[in-house]
Amino acid sequence: MYEVESGPLRKISHEHRVEIGRRISDKILETFRDRVLSVFITGSTAKALDRPYSDLEMTTIVKDNVEIPTKYYLYEGLLIQLDYRQESDFLKAAREPGRDWPIAADEYRNRIIMFERDNWTRLRKQSRRTMQPTSQRPYASQLWE
């Protein structure tokens, strides 16, 4: 899908990193079309804490019958991680946090939405409000605001 480069990393501004994310999102949609429900930037870029040599982490939510492995690229001197998650797995992880839930919760709380089909993100937030937590520790889905 993307031309893999070799060579040194480049200094990239936050704005340029987000713009690259938009281009990648467009390519993902062009390639996988109606199988994609949402594409968003996560990690330090989503929190505007990225530094000149930070990577770009992106998550694509796909329909449950679609399996696409995580991919890593060097693109325009920027390291990129593209994580493809099936909708039900993503939502289950939000409802049932495991031992790494503080790290995973960051993906639900901090994101820059590049694309969402049929208000997918908003609908997930609405369904989250109906969940009743069984402990005092917040679920990752409760943090997804």
Which descriptors would you attach to this protein?
23% strand, alpha+beta, Beta Polymerase, domain 2, 6 helices, 5 strands, five-stranded mixed β-sheet, 145 residues, 38% helix
Molecular structure report:
The protein is an alpha+beta fold and 145 residues long. The chain has a single domain, classed as Beta Polymerase, domain 2 (2-Layer Sandwich), CATH 3.30.460. It is built from 6 helices and 5 strands. A 5-stranded mixed beta sheet has the order 3-4-2-1-5. It is globular. The protein starts with 13 loop residues before the first helix and ends with a helix. Mean pLDDT is 83; it is low at 129-134.
Q: How would you concisely characterize the structure shown here?
A:
The protein has six helices and five strands. It is α+β, with helices and mostly antiparallel strands. It has a single domain (14-143), classed as Beta Polymerase, domain 2 (2-Layer Sandwich).
CATH architecture: 2-Layer Sandwich
CATH superfamily: Beta Polymerase, domain 2
Please tell me how large the radius of gyration is. 16 Å
* Elements, N to C (H/E): HEHEEEHHEHH
Strand content: 15-25%
Task: Give the biggest beta sheet.
Answer: 5 strands, mixed
Q: Structural class, from secondary structure content?
A: alpha+beta
CATH C-level category: Alpha Beta
Shape, principal axes of CA atoms: globular
Mean pLDDT: 83
CATH topology value: Beta Polymerase, domain 2
The tally of structural domains comes to 1
Order of strands across the widest beta sheet? Answer: 3-4-2-1-5
The N- to C-terminal Cα distance equals 32 Å
Please give the share of residues in helix. 25-40%
| Poorly predicted segments | 129-134
Number of H- or I-type helical stretches: 6
Number of strands: 5
